[in-house]
Amino acid sequence: MTRTYTIDSIPGDGIGVDVTDVAMECVDAVAGLHGFGVSWRVRDWNSDFYVKTGRMMPVDGIEQLSSGDGIYLGAVGTPDVPDDVTLWGLLIPIRREFDQYVNLRPMKLLPGVTGAMPEIEDLDIVVVRENVEGEYSQIGGRFGAGTDAEFAVQESVFTKAGITRVARYAAKTAAGRGGTLVSATKSNGIIHTMPFWDEVVARTVEQFPDVTVDKVLIDALAARLVMKPTSVRTIVASNLFGDILSDLVAGVAGSIGIAPSANLNPERRYPSMFEPVHGSAPDIAGKGIANPVGALWAAAMMLDHLGEEAAARSLTAAFESTLAEGIATPDLGGSATTLEFAREVRSRLR
Amino acid sequence: MTRTYTIDSIPGDGIGVDVTDVAMECVDAVAGLHGFGVSWRVRDWNSDFYVKTGRMMPVDGIEQLSSGDGIYLGAVGTPDVPDDVTLWGLLIPIRREFDQYVNLRPMKLLPGVTGAMPEIEDLDIVVVRENVEGEYSQIGGRFGAGTDAEFAVQESVFTKAGITRVARYAAKTAAGRGGTLVSATKSNGIIHTMPFWDEVVARTVEQFPDVTVDKVLIDALAARLVMKPTSVRTIVASNLFGDILSDLVAGVAGSIGIAPSANLNPERRYPSMFEPVHGSAPDIAGKGIANPVGALWAAAMMLDHLGEEAAARSLTAAFESTLAEGIATPDLGGSATTLEFAREVRSRLR
Ligand SMILES: CC(C)[C@H](C(=O)O)[C@@H](O)C(=O)O
Ligand SMILES: CC(C)[C@H](C(=O)O)[C@@H](O)C(=O)O
């Protein structure tokens, strides 16, 4: 009897559909080779669904997802619906209700992909981003709407429990990656939450004798990632800082299109969610030229999380060797279509 | 009779002292050549002052500064005093009480300075940063200190008036620089303040027929500044986003040590403040090797603000031609001391 995982796939909008389409086929293929199965429950929860129903997912959407082994997301967003609606209606509730408090964003230079600084050869950075609290909150609103005195406020909320658990995960990650954990902060400018972040990170990492914290101000860190990207291996960052830094690192590695993101509930009480970092890119949607590497890498992270490490390695090796051959989509300077690229990947699975 | 400007100089800590020392001499020299004078009121307000008095500046510090024509700051900060104390005791109150709501941070590739991406040749970016509200606020605090339930909150505050005036300044800046104003936002993740930012920026810039807004999410913008830095000319950003982006842009241009910052009260009701972007760098303080370019560029911005445009141009040309000769401090790969560099600059003033 083969083991079968139930995965909820939410292709979403735009190129989210293009890349998950081909990536799911690659996952099926590698699963077949490694003796397990994936049963996809494809969900049509996207901006069209919103236009029809006034919601990004059904009322019991979270409940529906909760019975699965994982969630595989393409991208959501369309010019017709405000981004805060699409995202706070789907992506963010999934992250929060499933307590996916770690957002893991690895990046390295891939073969055949030219980084922003061509002379750099060994970039290898993991961003461990806090994923459910911090600067992204619903506490706030407007005063005096429409008047000259109008203002808007939003509260950042950092909890000891929330910082502790993400710092612990990051410390474990750093332990296997040289032992230095760069903590992104702004405790000189943001005087209530970031000194607290520093304190709790320091206290948590103290319990890991092999790990030391390198506390770096977010502004200086942004510059350092551009000037000396190889001096950084593992970063722990708040929700907003992790968002910014992971895109920045992807830029240094040459492309947002290759970047994966795992939204993890490390205790596995709830399903985790895997997605490429890129958005829905409405301008190239449906043209068959979207880069599926971010989606494939995210799928490999999902297989790894499910315990199918060999399949994850095979999938990763397959897209890396495809890129190494010079086969790539137009955004990376190649001429392959999404489908052609994926076909090459499939032919390389072992 | 020659015109004399009264400038309050606050060398501050660490290399703040090293760079302002030599930069003030260069300013005196160029003033002499251009027929005006500068009367410096040098203030010893720094971390030592704090250790002695418990304050970063005297109780009537702001009042003392208010009678001057401008403020010239080195850098503040020392390992012995928490950063939030040094900065919220001096830098931030000056910015706020003098309503220096525009923080102007220009950056370009300087001759002889290698940018992070050597193939880029025409980088020229101005960041217009909101400087008195936004994410930096004192509203917030801790709940349940010492308990497991401890959490910290901090409120971001964005006002219509505050966004409008910085957007207007930025629109005027962009009008003279190609007409596209990149507005840094995060309206998909930060749901109260950033959609409001977008709205007010759009409404303000509408009044400038020659300017169009290019609204870019902060994460994508960070990546774009690395991958296509020459596609961006003028940025308007909130306090925090402007802080991060301006350091990032300096990193792209090759060095934080060259970056200047003008804290402007555009209406000239209060003195404006000019400072290099770099910090106090305690590790190299007093060694005579600090890079004075950021301080010199900031001084040139001060002269420009005072209406002494010719002197400003002369000072800028002098440090640029020094760099073009290959004369530079060690951080830029040269072997000049701070003093030697400044002497070269002085000899080139016209
Ligand atoms: C020191 C700090 C509070 C300050 C800021 O963030 O404003 C600094 O980084 C700057 O950019 O001038
Ligand atoms: C879409 C947006 C809310 C989201 C975020 O900032 O978390 C995205 O940028 C990401 O990084 O997954």
Short description:
Chains A, B: Its EC number is 1.1.1.83. Two copies of one chain form a homodimer. With 350 residues, chain A is α/β, with parallel strands linked by helices.
Description:
Two copies of one chain form a homodimer. By secondary structure, the first copy, chain A, is of the alpha/beta class. Chain A folds into two domains: 1-100 and 259-350, Isopropylmalate Dehydrogenase (3-Layer(aba) Sandwich); 115-253, Isopropylmalate Dehydrogenase. Chain A has eleven helices and twelve strands. Chain A has helices at residues 15-33, 47-53, 61-66, 83-97, 160-175, 193-205, 218-227, 239-252, 293-306, 309-324, 338-347; strands spanning 3-12, 36-42, 70-75, 102-108, 124-130, 140-143, 151-159, 180-185, 212-217, 234-237, 260-264, 273-276. In chain A, the strands form two sheets. The first copy, chain A, has a ten-stranded mixed β-sheet with strand order 2-1-3-12-11-4-5-10-8-9, sandwiched between helices. In chain A, helix 1 crosses helix 10 and helix 9 packs antiparallel against helix 10. The longest helix of chain A is centred in the first third of the chain and has 19 residues, at 15-33. Chain A is globular. The two termini of chain A are 21 Å apart. The model of chain A has no long low-confidence stretch (mean pLDDT 96). The interface between A and B is large, with 67 and 67 residues. Strand 7 of chain A pairs antiparallel with strand 7 (151-159) of chain B, so a sheet runs across the interface. The complex binds 3-isopropylmalic acid (IPM) (2 copies). One 3-isopropylmalic acid sits between chains A (188-189, 219) and B (87, 91, 243). Chains A, B: Its cofactor is Mn(2+); Mg(2+). Chains A, B: Its EC number is 1.1.1.83.
